[in-house]
Amino acid sequence: MSGHSKWATIKRKKGTLDAKRGALFTKIIREITVAAKNGGDDITANPRLRTAIAKAKANNMPNDNIERAIKKGTGTLEGVTYEEIQYEGYGPGGVAIMVSCLTDNRNRTTAEVRAAFTKHGGNLGETGSVGYLFNRKGYMLIEAGQTNEDTVMELLMDNNVEDIKTEDGNIEVVTPPDGYNEVHDVLVNKGFKLIEDEITFIPQTTVTLDEKKGSQCLRLIETLEDLDDVQNVYSNYDIPDEVMMKISEAQ
Asked: What domains, with CATH codes, occur in the chain?
């Protein structure tokens, strides 16, 4: 995720490029393995695997890595068994946060996630404490300058789309989860560059933060994202542009 949309997590420059790439590969491999385990290795019948492979290729992951991850998931190769866990809690300012994890050690992951919340002024909550504040959606963001909103609307007229709008010049396309792959294929086959492209959780409402709470919240989310077992972090914070500039200048 990135900072291109108001509900997406804002990334920071941290660590070396190779280290970040290695950590990203690890997370993607886990997702491919679990997707293959749960739904099989046929990408036409397994949308989750298809999405994971697309993300792997978009990040230039070697095909050998992808194939090994699939085989470990289907049992053709021996591998680690991962469990899917979702944590929910509150960050500074009452911001709602959901943390999706894939882990081979639930106790370790729970302890690490709880410690991150506590360290940065948040509280880990019970299952269901904030999940109701989010809707699971397909989300694609077309980079500015390639087309316009009317053209995209016409292109996707016959597809299952919930919303199309322009945000800072980029064009956002929101679909129900089961409409994501079809819409994704239409946009990619048309040659559009997608800045963001995933099935995600979009908040129904947002919480506006000041500089202090905003800085604390970003540090919490960054700490969570750096954990090896964390796949995605979703939040409903909203930091105004002028406040974000002050936070960035203070780094």
From this structure: 17-74 (1.10.10.200), 83-132+205-250 (3.30.70.980), 133-203 (3.30.70.980)
Sign of CA dihedral 148, 150, 153, 154: negative
Report whether pLDDT(133) > 80.
yes
Separation CA 53–CA 37 (nearest Å): 14
Alpha-carbon dihedral of residues 161, 163, 167, 169, nearest 10 degrees?
50
Strands in 78-162 per DSSP E: 83-90, 96-103, 123-124, 134-142
Buried b (16+ CB within 10 A) or exposed e, 174-198: bbeeebbbbbbebbeeeebebbbbb
Q: What is the pLDDT of residue 21?
A: 67
For residue 102, the one-letter residue type is L
**Of the candidates 248, 247, 224, the residue with the CA atom closest to the CA atom of residue 235:** 224
Helix 211-226 × helix 241-250 angle, to 10°: 70
Nearest to 196 by CA among 46, 27, 4, 67: 4
CA 220 to chain centre: 16
Token representation of residue 89: 């809690």
Residue-level pLDDT at 129: 94
